[in-house]
Amino acid sequence: DVKVTQSSRYLVKRTGEKVFLECVQDMDHENMFWYRQDPGLGLRLIYFSYDVKMKEKGDIPEGYSVSREKKERFSLILESASTNQTSMYLCASSLVGQFNQPQHFGDGTRLSIL
Amino acid sequence: TQLLEQSPQFLSIQEGENLTVYCNSSSVFSSLQWYRQEPGEGPVLLVTVVTGGEVKKLKRLTFQFGDARKDSSLHITAAQPGDTGLYLCAGDGGTSYGKLTFGQGTILTVHP
Questions:
Q1: H helix count then E strand count, chain B
Q2: Contact flag A99-B43 (C-beta cutoff 8 Å)
Q3: Where does residue B102 rank: exposed (0-12), middle (13-18), buried (19+ CB within 10 A)?
Q4: What tens digit of pLDDT does each residue of B50-85 get?
């Protein structure tokens, strides 16, 4: 069965800290995505990657960066955490090259910035 | 930028009632996906509709894609408490990157 694993279910950090959220998938998918999920706003795309070392900005990239050094791993970095980045973060992956592919999601990381 | 408007945002109903959730856009999508998310878990795909006018059924759930591929609906017949969850629609813009545009979500609560 397909699996997307996010390293932490809950994380509490302080304002100004550098925060790393890790995501690993075991499906050999080319595409990987980072979203944040806030009540009433659905899922908003932060960054995505379609290959190793390739990245593209999503709809809300400000204050975030990403790293994809290996195909299976996609990291989200909060350069200097702020309270308005308190949210649920979801990682997903999908196959490339064909339309209409579903995304497979991890269980999320609930991040609190104090 | 493609947008998907999902309504209603909240639905609280009694077991046995029927309900419909709507997703509307001014943009054309190559497909529309519906996901369900339970507390503490990530969204899980329910169905993908691809062809304009397509109707797909999953037990008591009926999904429809509009003729112009700009809108979709999810209808649940005789809702059960096990249907409780967050329902999300997502439009595929048709690129190989697989980017999806998500609606705001509908939180469904079915009371016994």
A1: 0, 11
A2: no
A3: buried
A4: 999 999 999 999 999 999 999 999 999 999 999 999
Q: What is the pLDDT of residues A83-114, one digit of tens each?
A: 999 999 999 999 876 667 889 999 999 999 99
Residue A23's Cβ-count burial label (10 Å; 0-12, 13-18, 19+) is buried
Q: Does A50 touch chain B (CB under 8 A)?
A: yes
Contacts A102 to B, Cβ<8 Å = 33, 45, 48
Note whether A98 and A84 are within 8 A (CB): no
Among chain B residues, CA nearest to A97:
B96
A79 closest CA partner among A20, A7, A34, A32: A20
Put simply, whether A69 touches B (Cβ < 8 Å) is: no
d(CA A70, CA A30): 10
Q: What residues contact residue B21 under an 8 Å CB cut-off, 6+ apart?
A: B6, B7, B8, B11, B73, B74, B75, B87, B89, B106, B108
